[in-house]
Structure formats: C-alpha cells, structure tokens
Amino acid sequence: MKKKSVAVVIISNGPGELTTWVKPVINNFKKEILTLKSKKHINFHLRLILVPCPNANGNEYEIAKKWPDLDLVTPAKKFWQLLINPSSFIKWPDSGIVVFLGGDQLWSVLLAKRLGYKCITYAEWEARWPRWNSSIAAMNEKVKQKLPFKYQKKCRIVGDLMADINHEGKYTFEMKNERWIAILPGSKKTKLSIGIPFFLEMADHISSSSNDIKLIIPIAPTINIKDFLYYQSNKNPLAKNYSSKIKYIKKLEESIFHYELQTENNTKIYLISSSPSNQILRQCELAITTVGANTAELAAINLPMIVVLPTQHLNLMNSWDGIFGIIGKIPIINKIISTCVKNWYLNNKQFFAWPNIKAKRLIVPERIGEIQPKEIADEAIYLLSNSNLLQDQRRNLKKERGSLGAVQKLTRLIIDSISN
C-alpha cells in the first residue's frame, strides 16, 4: 500500500516559543508516530516556518535548521516569498495542516489558505481567527469561553505547554550546600542591550554584599558568548550608564557549567549553554529575570523570581509587539511611542509577568520603572534572608501552573485532524 504524504507545518517566531513550545511538540510528534501503528501508512513531513516578529532574536533560523526531524526550515525574512510561491522552496503534499505555535495568528491562517491545508491554533490567551481554524487547542477553559459560542465546538482544552517543563527528568547532579541565584537578561537584542549591563552591575552589588551567594546565567540558544562582550562594550549605547565591565569569559572543562565570566570587580558568574537548563535552574533559590517568556518558564518549574523592567531607556528600545515594533524603528515615532508607553501603558497595564497575568494577582514581585541595579540586588538578598517569602512564592506558582500533558494532547489533536 502506497503511503500518503502529509505535511505538518509549524508556524513560530521567537526563541522562547521555539524552545518551550515547538521543540517539545516536534519531539513528541515523532514518538507518537512511531507508536501509532495504524498511522504508518502516512508519510509525515515536518516543516517549520519562521514568521516576521519584532521580538525575534535573529538567530532562530540558525538554531532550528540543525534539528534533524525537519525537512524544511525557512527564515522569517522569506515568509512573504514563501506565501506567494510555496513551491519555490519545496514540494508540498496535497494534504496537510498548519499549526500555530508563536507569532501573529494571522500568518498561520494565511499560509493554511495558501496551501489548502487545515489550521490549528494553540491559544494561550485568545484565539483570534476561529472562523478560519479547523481546530483550536486552548490552554484553559477561559480561552474557550472567550470564543463566540458557535466556534466553541472547534475548541479542545489541551493545557499548558510550558507546564510539562517541570517534569523533564530527575537531577543528574546537585549543587549541594550552596545558594544560587539565576540571572536571565533576555534572549532578544533589545532586551540584551539593557539586560546585560544592568544585570552585570546588579551582580557586582550582590557579590559585594554577600560572599556565599553564587550566580549563574542560562544562555538562551539564540544568543552566544560574543553577545555578552558586545552588549557590555562601547558599541552598546546603553552600556555607558552602568559601571560593570567584563574582565574575561573562559571555557570550563569537566564542569556542569560551560563558561566562567568574571567582571572587573571580580564577581564570578557561571554560564550554562545547554538548553533546556531546568535541571540546574530548579536547584536555585531565586531567579532575577526580564519580562517575557522567561517568566513563564520559571513559573513552570516553580522557581521564585523578581521580574525587572527598567524603563529609563525605552526610547532606545524597539522590541514592541506587532505594528508598534515596526513603526518604533523610526526614530521620531519611537520617541512618541516611548512617551505614550511611559505615560499610559505602563501605568494602566496591571501585570507584566506571566504567572501574575494568569492568576490576575501579584504572585511574583514586578519592579517596573526607572529602577537601579542596586535596588534589585538589595531585594534579592532580602528574599534569600527570608525563606518563608520564597516558599510562599513556590506554593503560589505551583497552584497556578497549568495542567500537565499538553504536549501530548496537542500532538494527538494534530494527528487526529490529519487522519479525519
């Protein structure tokens, strides 16, 4: 019997989505296909289409094209070319499905229509184009209830894709009798431009105040060591506002860490380049992170955190979502947007961290405004000195975490949609 060819096309954008949504789904999809004997008459083609996004790092394509299970990966800059002429990239089977896992939901709808495929949207907060989706995979019941009643029958609640992160095996090592803080400066260029100099100075303050606290930075797969050197140098206009500089970064051998960074003030920070790095992060007592997908990943492993968003440099940042990210690259408009954000958006938006948004209450502290590195360092030391506050955070994070098994449920939904 001749095998039927089917394309599974995943739409995504930024580094957080690739590591916490796309890669787990791809891995599970391959496992499901091997175990479902009744589907062996189908020849699946897994493809990843990166879409335009102002929050992307720029290295997503280089990372994803190394994944062995994909027979096509296209960079975001070629999305419009793909949409206009798909056959110029690769031969497309007559049947298939487009799965939204990051970016603007409109892109997946457009591509599905262009290819004549079905479309599934994984909706974390809201499904925006239900009419043109064959199925909607919702994170929770709230997403389903937001849909018009006539489209709710299309919706299946699969759970929280990030919740499964907390169950990725057991520790293969332990950082015994040591107190660790994880620092997450971001994975996108505009966040790194302030995150690296800001957090390096903060690290110096922590190190000078307490000798028994150790620091680590998990390196996102879309950034590299050269980025640390670049964003703390004079090439980064924001670096001049902060005092810390890097003395050296050296590679470590026979260590659970991959690099050692030392500042000119002799603060040591250990860098982890493996992804995911949850085995190490789960042994930390506290994380200090930027806003964004980091907060969701930390919440998924129940790690207490301080969420930081310095606003004193907004006029030099252009990582806003959607149309704001596009027009924000124009200097005059960027200045206008920055003023509006400071005077209205930041004052009216209730929460910025994922666990707080989901719970609709303050679970983890958010420090938004013209904050300084020493303020965050002092708060971190205070939290480590009051373990009851950290335990309260852990309990609340665990309570609000999404249901498990979402990756497998979404994978089954994809397979069922193709088979029907």
Report on the structure:
It is built from 15 helices and 15 strands. Helix 4 (105-115) links the parallel strand 4 (95-100) and strand 5. With 420 residues, the chain is α/β, with parallel strands linked by helices.
Give the gist of this structure.
38% of the residues lie in helices and 20% in strands. By secondary structure, it is α/β, with parallel strands linked by helices.
Task: Give a quick set of tags describing it.
single chain; 420 residues; alpha/beta; eight-stranded mixed sheet; seven-stranded parallel sheet; 15 helices; 38% helix
Fraction of helical residues: 25-40%
Strand order of the largest sheet: 10-11-12-9-8-13-14-15
Largest sheet: 8 strands, mixed
Number of DSSP helical runs:
15
Uncertain regions spanning at least 5 consecutive residues: 319-328
Rg: 22 Å
Query: In terms of structural class, how would the helical and strand content be classed?
Result: alpha/beta
Cα distance spanning the termini: 19 Å
Give the ordered list of helices and strands: EHEHEHEHEEHEEHEHEEEHEHEHHHEHHH
Number of strand elements: 15
